[in-house]
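Changelog note: in this version the structure field was regenerated for every chain. One regenerated record is shown below for reference.
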Amino acid sequence: MLRFHDYHLQKYEVSDHGKTVKLYLGFGYPGKETDFSEIIFTEVAIYHFVHTAYSIITDIENVPISSLFENEKENVQNWNRHFGVDIWKDDIETTVNYLQSNNYSGWYIESAIGFSGFVVAKSVNGT
């Protein structure tokens, strides 16, 4: 089970050339012992975060790849045009079909303030 609701984002780490994304979270307040949690996304195909300030994670929601890509269609197309996206397969529909047939899943990550984003990966695990 992933532990994240109302946990404070302490940092995140991207490794393995973008194939692993790890969120380091802590739940604690002055005078209380801090409970730590790590959320690890593996075999990441694409991710995008906006991190502007101190953040308290409110949700990590598993969403269908088709919905995620419908919502992020313009962003992904622009990123591919300007920077290249490794998993891009000519158009959104073909990309979604590729990801679905290769067992990828999508997650939106939300916070009370200062952080939002998504991850498309084969798995997520937590401690």
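Spot check on this record: The beta strands are 7-15, 20-27, 35-51, 56-63, 105-111, 115-126. The longest strand covers residues 35-51.
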